[in-house]
């Protein structure tokens, strides 16, 4: 399968000293696409940590997860199993980093791993990043925001309660997952597969761009490139980091040359 892949990322506008904590990887040759959103940290003595531990664990996760996929995909054909195990191995690597972390709020990240193989999308996700498939007439969002309930009830809990008692606690009604090295994160990994016959484009986004999914029409989404999505007026109210990967699929050789 031929692809046209575009990526774009933009630093947040929350704080001048807060770095971009989104991270992504694109492997066109093997159809592997990973997008991550590092969990925002607290300031220390009024200063945001830079380098950010959230960005560091995102890099650690991608390196481990991608290498795992590449090492086992030649021997294993169950891509859902591969993706699930890649999350597990990446989370273990984060645990090694966090083992020596002195603070109580463990650095973490959330995101999506997508693999296109044999005209199918195989995916896994945790947290609140967004994945959609679309063509000119239809759109399918294959991820669900795991933080929706805690955002609705956020005033009922302290930050400590949310981070330590709710995050990665599958037994809590408002729970959600974060890859921070704790084993409970594995309970929140969702995997699935979708046939791509009906779809022409895959879009992966961090949650700073969630408003475009709500506000833009299917045609607007389909005909916008990554930079246009990133700079959409519908995202002006979001101060978060913003990252998008667009993958146009099933391109013939003429289309490839014209892209």
UniProtKB/TrEMBL annotation:
PPM-type phosphatase domain segment(s): 2-249
Top-rank lineage group of the source organism: Bacteria
InterPro entries associated with the record: PPM-type-like_dom_sf, PPM-type_phosphatase-like_dom
PROSITE patterns linked: PPM_2
The name this protein goes by in its record: PPM-type phosphatase domain-containing protein
Organism (species): Roseburia inulinivorans
């Amino acid at each position: 399968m031929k692809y046209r892949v575009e990526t774009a990322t933009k630093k947040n506008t929350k704080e001048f000293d807060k770095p971009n904590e989104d991270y992504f990887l694109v492997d066109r040759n093997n159809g592997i696409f990973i997008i991550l959103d590092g969990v925002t940290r607290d300031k220390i003595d009024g200063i945001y940590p830079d380098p950010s531990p959230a960005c560091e664990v995102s890099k650690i996760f991608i390196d481990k997860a991608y290498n795992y996929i590449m090492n086992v995909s030649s021997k294993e054909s169950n891509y859902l199993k591969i993706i699930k195990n890649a999350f597990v191995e990446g989370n273990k690597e984060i645990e090694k980093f966090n083992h020596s972390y002195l603070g109580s709020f463990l650095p973490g990240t959330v995101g999506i791993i997508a693999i296109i193989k044999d005209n199918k999308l195989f995916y896994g996700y945790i947290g609140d990043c967004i994945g959609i498939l679309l063509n000119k007439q239809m759109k399918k969002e294959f991820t669900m925001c795991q933080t929706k309930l805690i955002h609705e009830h956020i005033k009922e809990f302290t930050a400590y309660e949310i981070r330590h008692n709710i995050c990665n606690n599958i037994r809590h009604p408002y729970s959600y997952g974060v890859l921070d090295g704790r084993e409970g994160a594995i309970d929140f990994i969702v995997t699935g597969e979708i046939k791509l016959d009906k779809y022409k484009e895959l879009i992966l986004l961090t949650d700073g761009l969630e408003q475009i999914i709500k506000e833009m029409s299917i045609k607007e989404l389909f005909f916008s490139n990554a930079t246009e999505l990133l700079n959409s007026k519908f995202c002006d109210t979001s101060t978060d980091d913003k990252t998008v990967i667009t993958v146009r699929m099933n391109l013939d050789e003429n289309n490839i040359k014209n892209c």
